Amino acid sequence: MDYGLMMTDAPSPNFDARALPISMIVLHYTGMESGEAAIARLRDPEAKVSAHYVVEEDGTILKLVDEEKRAWHAGRSHWRGITDVNSASVGIELVNPGHEFGYRTFPDAQMGALIPLVAAIKARHGITRGNVVGHSDIAPARKQDPGELFHWHALARLRLALPRPTRNLVDPGWPDAGFMLALERFGYDVEDREAAVRAFQRRFRPEMIDGEVDGECRCLLLALLLPKPLGDE
Question: For helices 215-225 and 193-204, what crossing angle results, to 10°?
């Protein structure tokens, strides 16, 4: 399928060979004071970091690493039993200063470029929407990106990511330990309990990120574990 994508080649030397088939898309923000500085770092052989794509705030897409290669974007991470996330994923960096340098919303032009990019990658590799994740999902103790201002609902409405459940919500009444077992089953690394809960909230209940398990969290997680979670239409 032709998604009408236009992109600029900006090769990075920071890659190696994959050890796993592609099954995930990981979304990041650059978290630096400027897009130019972030792109320079992602292409600097001394930095030893990279991504497959960068999407600038004006919607420009830069291709840094070919998808068949393993870019170095995830770091120490875990999702649904995969610990070599770099080998299993395509990494996309969104230019945004992040929480340290003046975190702000993601412009329409940036989201307008990201959506067809994600759709193309997802279709090309048969990636499930549950494996379109944020950096904070795969590394909850270390990362916050793309953060609570990211428009996950824009992807979810097009079935490019899981929705925030809104219908048929039922509180299963799990004790906290039961919630953590369910969260681990869903895919999160729960070694740092509070960080895992915060990451879940940042993704699925961004208006209140307190690291505390409550009835709403239980309702959302139960719905997400069902075959077809409903919401974000």
Answer: 70
pLDDT for res 199: 98
Q: How far apart (Å, rounded) are the C-alpha atoms in residues 221 and 216?
A: 9
pLDDT at 53 over 90: yes
Q: How far apart are CA 35 and CA 156, in angstroms?
A: 26
Using CA atoms, how far apart are residues 150 and 173, in angstroms rounded to an integer?
29
In terms of phi and psi (left: phi > 0; alpha: psi -120 to 50; beta: otherwise), the region of 77 is beta
Select which of 93, 148, 191, 194 is catalytic: 93
Q: Does the pLDDT at position 180 exceed 90?
A: yes
The sign of the torsion formed by the CA atoms of 105, 212, 93, 111 equals negative
- Torsional class of 4: left (φ above 0), alpha (ψ -120 to 50), beta (otherwise): left
Structure tokens at 222: 């139960």
Q: What are phi and psi of 145, to 5 degrees?
A: -85, 155
In 3D space, the residue among 183, 165, 172 whose CA is nearest the CA of residue 215 turns out to be 172
Q: Examine the residue annotation and report whether 93 is marked as an active-site residue of this protein.
A: yes
The one-letter code for the residue type at 175 is P
3-state secondary structure of 105: coil
Closest CA to 151 of 135, 168, 164: 164
Query: To the nearest whole number, what is the mean pLDDT of the chain?
Result: 95
Query: Which tokens go with 95?
Result: 């230019």
Burial class (CB in 10 A: 0-12, 13-18, 19+), 37: exposed
